[in-house]
Amino acid sequence: MNTPRAVYIGLKPGNRRYLLHRGYFVALQRFGWKTEWLSHHEGATAKLDHDVIIHDAEVPESVLARVRPSQVLIALNGAGTDISHYHRHAEKFALCVSSFNFFDDPSSILTRAHLRPSRVFSKELYYVMRYHGFFRRFAQPRFFRRARIPFMFLPFASDPSLFYPLKTAKKDCKWVFAGLLKVRRLVPALRRESARRGWKHEIIAPELKNAIDPMDLNAFYNRAEIGVNEQHLMTFGRELNQRGFDYGMAGIPQVTDMGWMCGPLYGAFCDIYAGKIANTEDFQ
Q1: Cβ contact 227:275 at 8 Å
Q2: What's the rounded Cα separation, in Å, for the pair 55 and 158?
Q3: Residue 241's domain spans which residues?
Q4: Which of 22, 121, 153, 177 could cross-link to 228 by cystine, CB 3.0-4.6 Å?
Q5: Structure-model confidence comparison of residues 12 and 271, the more confident one
């Protein structure tokens, strides 16, 4: 009997986001599958003769044309991409999943504070308007129903082999954060407040020109008393980032917004300061 083979096409090791889908391959490997990891560029020209193809983000039409009926194609979708060509290749998909909880219009995540005249040019409103058309056309479940493609909401999770409490860790930081700063409001404000109160903290962000190996994130999180987890504005408040799950696995509580999604999952392990995507008034 031949060993079943699977290929993942997406972000490769070295990018922090590759951890988002690493668990799929770990699971297949534990069941004896032979696995291969390709970048989007490599996947565009690779032979792709595997039993299972797991493709992150938009699956190009050139790739779909090469998928055979005997192969299982699973697409890990996001938002903001034109995937109208999926209609022409619907039979190629075994399943499409999304980490975005897409059930209604993205503007519903806005609060009254976001719609005040003084906030007309806010980042929250900008991102909702920027991606609104793509969301309505290509991200809602109805798009996949119309194309007759199986679809399901699949949130991120965490890997216990990578994130876990370190008994010997020294809690030398009040809080930590790793991620982008330019699309968040709480983190910059918390930096200023921490300077005023003398709270030691550490931030890993491209804007600060520093970086961390994804495999070192667990040790980084274990140094903190609290993990800061402000959600990303471009998700419309429809996606729980992976950070929230990793904090919990590392054994630290978190401060977060988007209570409508975080509360049911994180429960007593988080302190929620906003029911939806936060605006400045929520944490002053």
Answers
A1: no
A2: 19
A3: 173-283
A4: 177
A5: 271
